[in-house]
Design brief:
AAA+_ATPase; 9 strands; binds adenosine-5'-triphosphate; nucleotide-binding
């Protein structure tokens, strides 16, 4: 197991520091007739007007959030729908700017989300290679780990699907392949968004085991999930966000107890796990590869 503490001082090594973080989305075109050239010109001429007056709405998704994550920790991010979990994760990954405050990271954070799509028109096999290269693996490393990645994903359990284009995969299969590619590498900071809720139970078990392995190798794992059991099985610490604010930060059992009281039962009972749909992902859902 790699070091999780400073050899000299014996102190825990921080990997992510969020210091008073605010994240604000700006949504254009929320006023009527805002798309025309005249409207654009008017906006330029009326610069003094507020963003709301010019048809730009602000969504304050994360409010004054601070925490320190350490090596070897697996941290669950929980909260009801729209509480800011995915937004915070994207900001830690460096994909969203912060409005106020700072996020410091040690090493390269990698975001693995169910929305991160690979190239639909390419085969699973090509996507494994491209995904590996995008994460900074060499061609040699990818070749060495190729079989493991495919086995882990379970894509070929029902036939030779890995040589078919990804558009022929169900959303669950595609999500499993994405997770398998990202999990092939040891990450300094791995950010997982709902990936465990996507696969079937046996895939979830494999994913949980892999997350535990990544922790042992001294990385830090963040897991966003509505599945309290996955959080309980995988994480030792939980951050609870509500309306963008950090409501609680502590040991998994303590935080989940309060959260379950707040939601009136298990979150899983409130929001069922999405079932893998037997169709390919929609056109245009192409966003960056897991890096
Ligand atoms: N691209 C965007 N543009 C504008 N507002 C956004 C955007 N993405 C998210 N939001 C808003 O930011 C807030 C937080 O959303 P976020 O997706 O981070 O929540 P979440 O806790 O991950 O939700 P869920 O559990 O439903 O996935 C919500 O009010 C949402 O409407």
């Amino acid at each position: 197991m790699a070091d999780t503490t400073d050899k000299r001082t014996g102190e825990k090594l921080p990997t992510v520091i969020a210091d008073g973080v605010d994240i604000v989305y700006r949504v254009n075109g929320t006023g009527g007739g805002r798309g025309s050239a005249t409207a654009a010109l008017n906006r330029i001429l009326r610069r003094k007007h507020t963003e709301t007056a010019s048809g730009v709405r602000r969504v304050h998704a994360v409010r004054n959030v601070s925490f320190v994550a350490y090596r070897g920790e697996a941290i669950g991010l929980i909260g009801t729908n729209g509480s800011g979990k995915s937004t915070l994760l994207k900001a830690v990954a460096g994909l969203l700017p912060v409005e106020n405050g700072r996020i410091y990271t040690d090493g390269q954070p990698s975001l693995l989300g169910v929305n991160a799509a690979l190239m639909r028109d390419l085969t699973g096999e090509r996507n494994v290679h491209l995904g590996g290269l995008a994460m900074g693996m060499s061609r040699e490393e990818i070749r060495e780990r190729y079989e493991d990645i495919v086995d882990f994903s379970g894509i070929n359990e029902k036939g030779d699907f890995i040589t078919l284009p990804m558009r022929t995969y169900s959303s669950g299969m595609a999500a499993r392949l994405r997770f398998s590619i990202a999990a092939a590498k040891d990450h300094d900071v791995l950010l997982v968004d709902e990936a465990l809720a996507t696969g079937d139970r046996s895939f979830q078990k494999r994913s949980e085991a892999r997350i535990r392995e990544l922790r042992k190798r001294a990385g830090t794992v963040f897991l966003v999930s509505h599945n309290n059991k996955s959080i309980r099985d995988t994480c030792d610490r939980v951050l609870w966000l509500e309306r963008g604010e950090l409501r609680m930060d502590g040991p998994t059992d303590e935080v989940l107890k309060e959260y379950e009281a707040f939601t009136g039962g298990t979150e899983k009972a409130r929001k069922p796990e999405p079932k893998p749909k037997p169709r390919a992902e929609p056109e245009g859902a192409r966003v960056p590869l897991p890096s």
